[in-house]
Amino acid sequence: MGAALPEILSGYVRAALALLAIRPDLLRKGGWVDRFETQHSPRVVLRSTLIYGVVLSRSLLPERLASEEIRQGMLRSELERASLDPGITTHAKVLELESKALLRLCVPSFYLAAGTRNVAGEGGHNLAHDAASQTAAETSGIAWRGCAWTEWRRR
Questions:
Q1: Number of domains making up the chain
Q2: Closest residue by Cα to residue 111 from 92, 101, 126, 133
């Protein structure tokens, strides 16, 4: 493996240089980035899969399996405590969607709604639409604006 490392690295460098060479075309109106934003929904990672795994395994302890309500309450409180970005990860709908997925033993999935910067959850539920009932501070993270995706596009 060690002997192949320079070749692997040079492949990454060539790929990066090729992307930089066509960057203006990728970013122009109607270019590939616009196509991806309007036709494909980029995944948004709100928490690491490790956090979901730890919370899920704690929810499967025998004392928490007595009822769905006990397990759901535990999931919600564990997720609230594991919030790294309280602006979005403590949003009521996010916690609800995460809890429902974990109850089914699934990893929660969120993405950008096509053509927007709004975070959506399972079933296409647009979280920005739920923001009307919450304060501006609570909804500051609902429209995805600070991620590397946005920063990369500005450069």
A1: 1
A2: 126
